[in-house]
Amino acid sequence: MSDSMRWTRRRWIGAGLAGMAVGALPRRAGAATTLRWATVLATNHPGVAMMERVAKQVREETGGSVDIQTFPAGQLGSSRDVIESASSGAIQIVDEGAAQFGQFVPQFSILEAPYIWRDPQHVRRVLNSPVLEEMNTQLVAKRSMRVIGSTYYGKRHVTSGSKAINTVDDMKGFKLRIPEVDTFRAMAEAWGARPTPLNIGELYLALSQGAVDGQENPLPTIQSNKFFEVQKYLVLTGHIITPRLIVVNEAAWQALNAKERQSLKSAVETHGQTQDNDILSQESKLADTFKAAGMTVLQPDIESFRKPVLASVPAKFESKWGKGLWERIAST
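and the corresponding structure tokens:
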């Protein structure tokens, strides 16, 4: 990362922290509220198009009283950076994979646990149930952030740069890039792989140079970040379905009036559904697209991947998630 980027990021965070003091003062009548929304998603990802649509709708519905500024592609930092900034109030909105919030409320990481979800509809049912609201209450209390919506990020698959992966035995010693999340690490270890946490903004270069052997992400993310250019094999493991949570700083949320809050939530729901449909549409086609581009698409022995993970991960994390939560989600 260049010195100029570091300076830009510090300047934004510093400005945001300074803005917190201003935000603590009563809001002037007719004054516009600026909400900064940061994401690590690439600019051509459907999630970024959603952000822009939400910003436009909220601006129009509120007559300009709420101005959402969007910062995609990790402009304001890594996944952990932007979540911490949303907690402090340096930025006001962030979207991230559900498990990233497990660093603050451990139960969140179960929402991105391997092999817990049956399909995207199952994810949606649980996220609209009291399960998420219970976690949300803790997030507000502990870290001053509130979940106001969610989106479907996709079903995650493994890619490999040089080695064909047909069974879990082929993962032994494989340097697998993972997000900085403990459940992902436990899954990789159960496969016999060498988990290698790395920010997604650094991943293309790491793959191209062989610093890691492969990675795992949904097909639209592999597309938007062009990982298919530097990976030879697409291994359709389908090991995790990731929901992304849209989270707002609590002080910023409380500073909005009822009409503005409703506008924001409604826009997130409407355009989040459009984003979900875009992701599902891409998922139905991208394996063939990658194959045409030169990747070898492999259908591995799925059960060989599932078995060691389910034999170890749920029991390992039960004390963090709470006894019975896995079963409660699975039965919803």
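(Above: one complete record from the training split.) Confidence is low (pLDDT under 50) at residues 1-26.
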